[in-house]
């Protein structure tokens, strides 16, 4: 596996070689027509980018030469110099030198000494004549020893990778069917071929998924300006800390969460962090702190937005939830802090006292939640009053292939994404009890509502769920504990099957209108398997419970 440093060097080399080709082309255009402003502007831009990239990678000598060249092209743009006379061979020589330096980086060699070139560039800046050497005098002549090189990297449109991943998904489905058939037939040669096909498609799948990965820094690094602008508008002093820029995630996932992350950051500044005066009165530093971080969490990526602001007043949220009719006063009193904070994600729920350009803590969080749900991810919130708040986005690294738990219900196979699967247990009826018409089980010191999944699915058509009764339960009950929006729910199923990676396909019309299912997958047996949507199931239970 490549190291991050090697990956970054390859990316630098790919861009640097493109810059070198662009320099060579545009300087030739400028030599033909010294008034060509487009070629001049491109030369200035390319030098500026190469300077920044070289310095960022630690290639100070490349950065220094590019900076000197950028300065000269800047003087030409401002009409203080003209692209003529002895300036021309020096600039051509500079581009040749940059080409040699870039190739040296690719070969892992020391870059050539550029002191003479840098001295000449400085003379030109000062309006003095450069000291030309023989190679600079003939810099415009073709040398058949000149090396023409292509980059080792190519840029691919995301839609092409999407199409390729879809094809791989189809291949995986057929692979699993072939593997199942080979085991049923029992032919050793067929089984060996199927096993080899399994390994090859596995490698192909992960290679395509790897090609779609990007660093979260490509999004994170856009936030310093956002934070600065919002802080100025809110008259707040905010320090932004970014952690984990090199964590990798599927590019499409990063695209989908962009608006959600922007909303959380704006909210953290606008309504999480206090003004300097208020912070001083609370014994805090006048400057507020905001952290945007990413890290891996098992097979997922955890992105967090943390502020050291006023925190969320749980009791105020509890009161507002009762006022909105989201929960009864009696039930609200028994909810823990996590369950109360979950109300922040209800549509239209707001704790803001007034509407501003920066939406209040709570406004729009339902939209953020829906974006995360669409990815099969989770959104969590933790807060301490007076100390701050952390929003955690738990995201899959890929949206094409997901880990799932397969189970059986009424002789049909179903799947639940592992992202929302907390645990699986088998309980006797005596280990459960009925409270307020709802079946409850004590699992790991938590009281968790339990419902027969068959009854829950049918309640979508038949109205409210009937009051629970243990008399309907015979023998041990297989229960899947799912977790959504800080709410756990136990689903009674007929039988656990297995855990495996699945390729989820969207539902076809008119089944795509049923929001209880997030898609379908095809099992190795050829059987179509519905994938349950845990957020929709949880919302259905809350709406239909007695």
CATH architecture of the largest domain: 2-Layer Sandwich
CATH domain class name of the largest domain = Alpha Beta
Roughly what is the average pLDDT, rounded to an integer? 84
Poorly predicted ranges = 135-143, 355-363
| Content-based structural category | alpha+beta
CATH topology of the largest domain: Heat Shock Protein 90
What is the overall shape? Answer: flat
Task: Estimate percent helicity.
Answer: 40-55%
Strand order of the largest sheet: 10-14-15-13-12-11
Summary tags:
18 helices; flat; Heat Shock Protein 90; Bact_Chemotaxis_CheA; Four Helix Bundle (Hemerythrin (Met), subunit A); kinase; transferase; 546 residues; nucleotide-binding; 4 domains; alpha+beta; 46% helix
Describe this structure in words.
This protein has 546 residues and is an alpha+beta fold. It has 18 helices and 18 strands. 46% of the residues lie in helices and 22% in strands. The radius of gyration is 31 Å and the shape is flat. A hairpin with a 2-residue loop joins β4 and β5. The protein has four domains: 4-137, Four Helix Bundle (Hemerythrin (Met), subunit A); 158-211; 215-396, Histidine kinase-like ATPase, C-terminal domain (Heat Shock Protein 90, 2-Layer Sandwich); 401-544, OB fold (Dihydrolipoamide Acetyltransferase, E2P) (Beta Barrel). The strands form four sheets. A six-stranded mixed beta sheet has the order 10-14-15-13-12-11. The protein has a five-stranded mixed beta sheet with strand order 2-4-5-7-6. Strands 16-8-9-18-17 form a five-stranded mixed beta sheet. α2 (37-57) runs antiparallel to α3 (60-77) and α11 packs antiparallel against α16. One of its GO terms (cellular component) is cytoplasm. Residues 401-543 form the CheW-like domain. Residues 1-105 form the HPt domain. This is Chemotaxis protein CheA. One of its GO terms (biological process) is chemotaxis.
């Amino acid at each position: 596996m490549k190291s991050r440093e090697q990956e970054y060097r390859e990316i630098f080399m790919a861009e640097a070689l493109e810059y070198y080709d662009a320099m060579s082309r545009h300087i030739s255009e400028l030599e033909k027509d010294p008034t060509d402003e487009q070629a001049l502007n491109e030369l200035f831009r390319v030098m500026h980018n190469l300077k920044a990239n070289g310095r960022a990678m630690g290639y100070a000598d490349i950065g220094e030469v590019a900076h000197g060249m950028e300065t000269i092209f800047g003087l030409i743009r401002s009409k203080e110099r003209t692209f003529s006379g002895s300036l021309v061979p020096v600039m051509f020589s500079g581009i040749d030198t940059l080409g040699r330096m870039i190739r040296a980086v690719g070969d892992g060699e020391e870059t050539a000494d550029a002191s003479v070139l840098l001295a000449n560039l400085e003379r030109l800046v000062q309006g003095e004549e450069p000291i030309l050497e023989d190679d600079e005098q003939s810099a415009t002549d073709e040398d058949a020893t000149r090396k023409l090189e292509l980059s080792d990297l190519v840029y691919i449109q995301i839609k092409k990778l999407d199409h390729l991943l879809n094809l791989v998904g189809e291949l995986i489905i057929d692979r699993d069917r072939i593997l199942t058939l080979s085991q049923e037939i029992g032919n050793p040669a067929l089984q060996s071929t199927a096993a080899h096909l399994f390994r090859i498609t596995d490698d192909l799948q992960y290679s395509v998924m790897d090609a779609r990965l990007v660093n979260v820094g490509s999004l994170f690094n856009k936030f310093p300006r956002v934070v600065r602008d919002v802080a100025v508008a809110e008259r707040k002093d905010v320090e932004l800390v970014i952690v984990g820029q090199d964590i990798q995630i599927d590019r499409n996932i990063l695209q989908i969460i962009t608006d959600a992350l922007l909303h959380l950051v704006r909210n953290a500044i606008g309504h999480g962090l206090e003004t300097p005066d208020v912070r001083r009165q609370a014994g805090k530093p006048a400057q507020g702190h905001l952290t945007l971080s990413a890290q891996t969490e098992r097979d997922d990526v955890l992105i967090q937005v943390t502020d050291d602001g006023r925190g969320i007043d749980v009791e105020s949220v509890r009161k507002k939830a009762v006022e909105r009719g989201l929960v009864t006063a009696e039930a609200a009193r028994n909810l823990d802090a996590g369950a109360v904070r979950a109300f922040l994600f209800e549509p239209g729920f707001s704790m803001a006292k007034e509407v501003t350009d920066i939406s209040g803590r709570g406004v729009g969080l339902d939209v953020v939640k829906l974006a995360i749900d669409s990815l099969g991810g989770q959104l969590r919130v933790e807060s301490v009053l007076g100390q701050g708040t952390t929003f955690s986005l738990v995201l899959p690294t890929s949206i094409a292939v997901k880990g799932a738990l397969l189970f059986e219900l009424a002789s049909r196979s179903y799947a639940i994404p592992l992202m929302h699967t907390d645990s699986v247990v088998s309980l006797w009826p005596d280990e459960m009890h009925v409270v307020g018409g709802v079946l409850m089980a004590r699992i790991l010191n938590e009281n968790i509502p339990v419902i027969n999944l068959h009854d829950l699915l049918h309640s979508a058509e038949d109205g409210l769920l009937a009051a629970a009764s243990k008399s309907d339960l015979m023998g041990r009950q297989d229960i899947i504990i799912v977790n959504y929006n800080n709410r756990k729910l136990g689903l009674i199923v007929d039988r656990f099957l297995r855990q495996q990676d699945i390729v989820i396909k969207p539902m076809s019309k008119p089944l795509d209108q049923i929001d209880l299912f997030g898609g379908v997958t095809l099992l190795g047996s050829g059987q179509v398997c519905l994938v349950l949507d845990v957020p929709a199931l949880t919302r259905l239970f809350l709406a239909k419970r007695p």
